[in-house]
Amino acid sequence: MNNLLSEGLGLMVFGMGFVFLFLTLLVFVTGFMSKLVMKYEPAPKPKAAKPLPNSAGKAVAQGGNDELVAVITAAVHKYRS
């Protein structure tokens, strides 16, 4: 019985050690790949803001449009009910 228990513990230590080594290697390889990609591939540039449609842009530029405010209020009211 003692031999079987020691063999089981040895197998457990071997298995856990193998998993630990594999995960450690995975962390280092992933970090290396990340640095390699960042070196050769530049970071994406942020996209410019999309301009507003004419009616909405004019309403914002004029300080507000009563019709636009009424439409937005009606939409919010319908959404909440």
From TrEMBL:
The keyword Membrane applies. GO terms for cellular component: plasma membrane. InterPro entries: Na_pump_deCOase (IPR005899), OadG (IPR023424). GO terms for molecular function: decarboxylation-driven active transmembrane transporter activity; oxaloacetate decarboxylase activity; sodium ion transmembrane transporter activity. Its cofactor is Na(+). One of its GO terms (biological process) is sodium ion export across plasma membrane. It is found in: Cell membrane. The chain crosses the membrane at residues 12-33. It catalyses: oxaloacetate + 2 Na(+)(in) + H(+) = pyruvate + 2 Na(+)(out) + CO2. Its EC number is 7.2.4.2. Belongs to the OadG family. Heterotrimer of an alpha, a beta and a gamma subunit. This is Probable oxaloacetate decarboxylase gamma chain. It comes from Neptunomonas phycophila. The lineage of its organism: Bacteria, Pseudomonadati, Pseudomonadota, Gammaproteobacteria, Oceanospirillales.
